[in-house]
Amino acid sequence: MKETSKPVHAAMDAFATAAGELHVGGQPVTRLAARVGQTPFYAYSRSLLRARVAQLRAALPPQIKLHYAMKANPMPAVVQFMAGLVDGIDVASAGELKVALDAGANPAEVSFAGPGKRDIELQQAVAAGVLVNVESMRELPVLAAASQALGLPARVAVRVNPDFELKGSGMKMGGGPKQFGVDVEVVPEMLAWMAREGLAFEGFHLFAGSQNLRAESICEAQLKSYELALRLAADAPAPVRFLNLGGGFGIPYFPGEQRLDLAPIGANLAALTERAAADLPQAHLVIELGRYFVGEAGVYITRIVDRKVSRGHTYLITDGGLNHHLSASGNFGQVIRKNYPVAIANRMEGAERETVSVVGPLCTPLDLLADRMELPRAEVGDLVAVFQSGAYGASASPQAFLGHPVCVEVLV
Ligand SMILES: Cc1ncc(COP(=O)(O)O)c(C=O)c1O
Could you tell me if the CB of 15 is within 6 A of ligand 1? Predict the structure, then answer.
């Protein structure tokens, strides 16, 4: 008979454990909590960030430029650290642009994408000298006017809404009707406008989707994006110097998910780099990643403030939850709620185990960090760690909701 085993989380072994305690940034988590001075907090590891960039550099061809999509984690210290490791930063607002420039990012290697860019944001982008990934015809005259007023080039690329989507993606940002990018059918008209008005055309941006763990789907999207850009380049007013093939590299959050295999993606990009050398000799190929850089390098730490049994079911109630970590609660885009990997950070090797739910302090059943999970027996005062928390954590959570204290973020 075929054995059916329950799906489990991928091993969370990037953070060391010693004497039964999780270590973050080389410190036992209880000491780190004392140093931070409060729970809850997020901690991000410099050494894991560095290792992740090195792993990508080793797996992908050296010609590929790695851009950090800072929406995944805009903590200024993280952005500054990443700016020193990657080739460029992708921003999604003037607020993010400020953080990137403060962090020392080279404006020549900063790009700005996003629907609904306000006029003032487009003017700031021209003044900063960054590349604007244009997503609407409305942006064009604003950019042209800013360029004229400032006496500076408006550096532009076209963000294309392709006629395909990234298969197997957690979130799709291309294909069909979308608020992102310019429908491929409209791109020639936009290119003609750019040529007529003298905008400084530099290339194309295609972002099909995110949180994909299937290398073959990512390779397929990269190939289709490349071929589409090549077709569009025939109408371009200047040689393509920048071709952003998107990203979408996922990380394992839920039971049964495996880490992405980078080897086929490396081989695919090597083939595309070779083709680009002949087809688009001035073009740099760019990959734009958020969570893949930072997601696995962060943990959320929250303290147990109560232990309650309700009709036989044990609840560990923590001092933070959905208000700081919306995505771990299952309310940031998940269709079916599943548990993130969770541990009792100061009882990593606890032998006595029990099935519990870990819930935050908010008055809503949505505030759930772990639903019926088997964990070492824990008491009030113990620390809960939520792994895979370096991306879409603090900045993607409703921190003011119900008036609890905001969380702290540290880079260690
Ligand atoms: C244009 C763009 N770039 C990058 C990202 C980052 O995605 P991820 O963090 O999954 O790599 C997103 C995600 O929404 C995006 O829309």
Answer: no
Same domain for 285 and 136, yes or no, is yes
Ligand 1 near 210 CB (within 6 A): yes
Distance 182 CA to ligand 1 centre (A): 17
Verify whether ligand 1 is closer than 6 Å to residue 159 (CB atom): no
Do 30 and 141 share a domain, yes or no?
no
CB of 184 within 6 A of ligand 1: the answer is: no
Do residues 337 and 327 make contact, with C-beta atoms less than 8 angstroms apart?
Answer: no
Among left, alpha and beta (phi > 0; psi -120 to 50; other), residue 350 is beta
Residue 170's domain comprises: 113-289
Closest alpha carbon to 106 in 123, 95, 120, 91: 91
Q: What digits encode the pLDDT tens for the residues 335-378?
A: 899 999 999 999 999 899 999 999 999 999 999 999 999 999 99
Q: What is the CATH number of the domain that holds 188?
A: 3.20.20.10
- Given 257, 289, 321, the domain boundary residue is 289
Give residue for tokens 């309650």.
Answer: 308
Domain boundary among 229, 263, 289: 289
Domain count of the fold of the chain: 2
CB atoms within 10 A of CB 209: 23
Note the pLDDT tens digit of each residue in 133-169. 999 999 999 999 999 999 999 999 999 998 877 676 6
